[in-house]
Give the backbone structure.
Amino acid sequence: MSKPLLRVSRKWVPSTVTLLVSLAILFPIVWLVLSSFKETGELFSYPLAMLPSRFTFVHYRKVIGEGFFGYVFNSLFLAVVGTAITLVISAMCGYALAIYRHEVSYTNLVFGIFLLGTLIPGETLTVPQVTVISELGLYNNIWGVILPVVTTTTGIFMFRQHYLSIPLSFVEAARIDGSNEAQTFLYVMLPLGTSSTVTLAIFSFMWRWNDYILPLLVLSDQKKYTIQIAIKNYIGFNGVDWSSILAASVMSIIPIIILFIILQRYIVGGLSASGVKG
Amino acid sequence: MKTRYVKRHVRAFWLFVAPCLLLFSTFFLIPLGLSVGFSFTNYDGWKVMNFIGLANYKELFADTKFYQSLGRTFAYTLFSLPFKVIIPLLIASLVTSKRVKIKALARTLTYIPSLLSALVVGITINWMFSAEYGLVNYVIQVLGGTPLQWALNPKLATFVISFASNWASTGFYMVIFIGGLNNIPQEMYEAAAIDGSTTMQTFLRITIPMLAPTTFLVTLLSTVNLLKEYALVQGITQGGPGLNTTFIIQFIFDKGFNQMQYGYASAISLVVMVVFAFIAFVQFKFSNGGDR
């Protein structure tokens, strides 16, 4: 190989490998999406082709006809309300843990209680959790899947770190000016928002949108199902209703992918900047 | 004056933490206590609840299905763990390399599977591996091989689950590794280049050791996530064939919610909690918490 050609290949080989690897990783989703537009006969016959011979929306129409948008609404409610609550209570809690650390001697003890939540996998507590949810009368109620999951140690931790980085003199100045504790939080500290608020919002939305275990166990009335449970219901005892489940799955991932593409710098930046230090 | 101030601040502190503390107590601490309580009873989730002492634990330690399920979970975790760590590390190295042009695009594409719910991840991969009319079997046939029974053979079924789990987590751990790679001081690479180190030497002698804390974090997170694999399996095998992909969390749920043995399920939960904590502790000790 001549010298200039070698130089070109030194640049292009790694880039090409990277591109091929990332396309390979994306491929199963592309295959899922393209399959969802194939007619049922084409889904179950050889030879397989990459593209549908004729794009059809028949599976989408069937799934939507079975009330899919109702499930979308339930999932949106869970994700939006759950995220809003998570943001508000995490901000309050993280703020208190950071700002009163000199005045209240047990802030670290309280923080330690929340850290317990990261040590014990929630899945091992699901059985008694469902008992508590029923006892509170929240069985078959969307609040029964929102309230148990809105407290996240990650969120509390993020806000605590953020408010630790803000000088206490900000708070003292506000107090001298006659602002009470709630006003200081609402009008002085909360507006000093941070990109980690956006990061937490995106993740929280995604977690709630994708929640599976509690909705499956708590929501029994079909009208109250979230998308994930509706999808799960296409897996029956006699096998999977592939043509419907493909369309339903594609529709379930569209909102998340759109959100990601718009806000991705907060995910990639937030993850590598906030919690994780190398 | 001072004490009145502090008193008011103590009250404000409790009001600010109240929502989190209340919800956390209701849905985490109380269930934890109930779990301990239930484990000494024969609670059926409805009417019967008698104190039966340590009977659940005695039954548990003699339950071969429990040991099998736990063993299966460990085998699955050990098999999947190296891929969970190594593949994201290699991809992160690629997309931070100076010689690669399309870094941002590659990162975006690689991250997208991490956005999917575990159930949809299972379904997506299951669709490619379905025995009849699945893409993988089709390609095998076109290449002249015999199609494989992905769902009926226990080893193949476990492989498909592991493949799905790795596929879905690669983007997330890649991002964590990118953070770790960006924290390595650039001067170290410059020094290595001056000393005539090859790319491979630099990777093995500088990148890998400097990345130890990040690698530890990814290993710890992957281990826990593999040990509690559940929703993904529901999109692929639902625990079958037989019980061959029923991992420990599903075992607990089956006992609790399907067989209505809340007491017994609580006993298993507590033992599993201790086992998981012990594994995390051993990893922590073994790697000095990732300190180099």
Summary: Strands of chain A lie at 235-236, 239-240. Chain A touches chain B through 96 residues (CB under 8 Å).
